[in-house]
Amino acid sequence: MDISAEFVPEGSPKRRQIQVAAEQLFLAHGYGAVSMDQVARTASVSKATLYAHFASKEALFATIMQDKGLETPLYEGMFPEQVDDLRAVLESMGTRLLRFMLRERTLSLYRVALAEAARFPELGRTFYANGPCTMRERFIAWLGVMDQSGLVQVDDRDIAAEQFMALMRSDVFLRRSLSIDPLPTDEEIERSVRAAVDTWLRAFGR
Amino acid sequence: MDISAEFVPEGSPKRRQIQVAAEQLFLAHGYGAVSMDQVARTASVSKATLYAHFASKEALFATIMQDKGLETPLYEGMFPEQVDDLRAVLESMGTRLLRFMLRERTLSLYRVALAEAARFPELGRTFYANGPCTMRERFIAWLGVMDQSGLVQVDDRDIAAEQFMALMRSDVFLRRSLSIDPLPTDEEIERSVRAAVDTWLRAFGR
DNA sequence: GTCTATAGGCCGATAGAC
DNA sequence: GTCTATCGGCCTATAGAC
């Protein structure tokens, strides 16, 4: 995912410091509110060094933010081929997905991508491709298996997958993304996921 | 909604110019990327005049952005008490809601609220209260009427309302909010809404 | 209230020494 | 590659005249 990391394995500690500092600052405060002075100070590096590695603030932001997809092995064991209890599997998937979307890091990336997508078109595209789009594709493929097992009744897998994810972006997620509520408790998350799975199963379950 | 407007009915054209300019600039570019010079220039007003009306950039932003709720009479005739064709009514409601959410002005406010909610907590709260929360409350009230008419089968109106709105925030909305796609066509909107209403009705219709 | 002019500082970016 | 030192400019905010 982060291909450039291979070109700087351990080679340039300063560059690594810059990357870490820039990522943290940009994710926390967005593009406009972060200055190159701040990045240099946080990275314990002079501005000249910073500009030796990145041509401009825009280039730094674009480089750091793009390909910042899902580093988490989110999908590991998420889509079992053998399913006894479909409801339980969907609830486990949903809980995992919603938990991931509610992580501070994911939310920060979402907020920055949304806010700066107009100025950095690649950012919106990359976020979508590495995030929601990948998740949906995997879900669609898994739906194919479930369909063959006769566990679901799905005319249009694309729509079924989209709606599963849309149902996860519930009010809990909206309120948290707007910084209204703190991180919801496990109970709140499970309640929201259970309600979403209920609805999805009534539409697509057999 | 905009209470302060009553204190400056037509009285201060300069103040009105400032409000219009600031709103446009902040919505288009966010907080950090807009300067007071820019606001003054766009409003055809000197910076001193600007600071005579608003104590600081933060105060200007907070004043302009808060209580910028739904000026549109979005809800007018949206919730009919007499319903023959429930599906048609839900599709009409959904289309209207999705269209509103996809308007450039609504999206800009959403992006700014999301990006700056951490720095301006009131902003996230106000956006939620004037937008999604109000819509959900009206939907819940309307669901009560539908329930009495025996047209729907809803255990928890809150969940049913939340999920109706979540289903409207579909992939079409996500892609547009990330500036990936242009404004979707009428057909795309209707297809998305129809699929959402299908699913919602299978879960809550009678 | 409104202007011109400017203070004082931080901005992005660079020159030059090592 | 890395530093110190600094450029010219734009930033938020204000002083003082009218």
Secondary structure elements and pairings:
Two copies of one chain form a homodimer.
Chain A (H helix, E strand, L loop, with lengths): L12 H17 L6 H7 L4 H7 L3 H9 L20 H17 L1 H13 L4 H28 L8 H12 L2 H7 L8 H19 L2
The structure holds a DNA duplex (18 and 18 nucleotides).
What do these coordinates show?
The structure is a homodimer of 206-residue chains. Chain A has helices at residues 13-29, 36-42, 47-53, 57-65, 86-102, 104-116, 121-148, 157-168, 171-177, 186-204. The longest helix of chain A is centred in the middle third of the chain and has 28 residues, at 121-148. The first copy, chain A, is elongated, with a radius of gyration of 20 Å. The first copy, chain A, folds into 2 domains: 3-65, Homeodomain-like (Arc Repressor Mutant, subunit A); 86-204, Tetracycline Repressor, domain 2 (Orthogonal Bundle), CATH 1.10.357. Chain A is an all-alpha fold and 206 residues long. Helix content of chain A is 66%, strand content 0%. In chain A, 37% of the residues are buried. Chain A binds chain B through residues 30-33, 110-115, 117-118, 121, 124-125, 127-128, 132, 136, 156, 159, 162-163, 165-167, 169-171, 174-175, 177-180, 195-196, 198-200, 202-204, and chain B through 30-33, 110-115, 117-118, 121, 124-125, 127-128, 132, 136, 156, 159, 162-163, 165-167, 169-171, 174-175, 177-180, 195-196, 198-200, 202-204. The structure holds a DNA duplex (18 and 18 nucleotides).
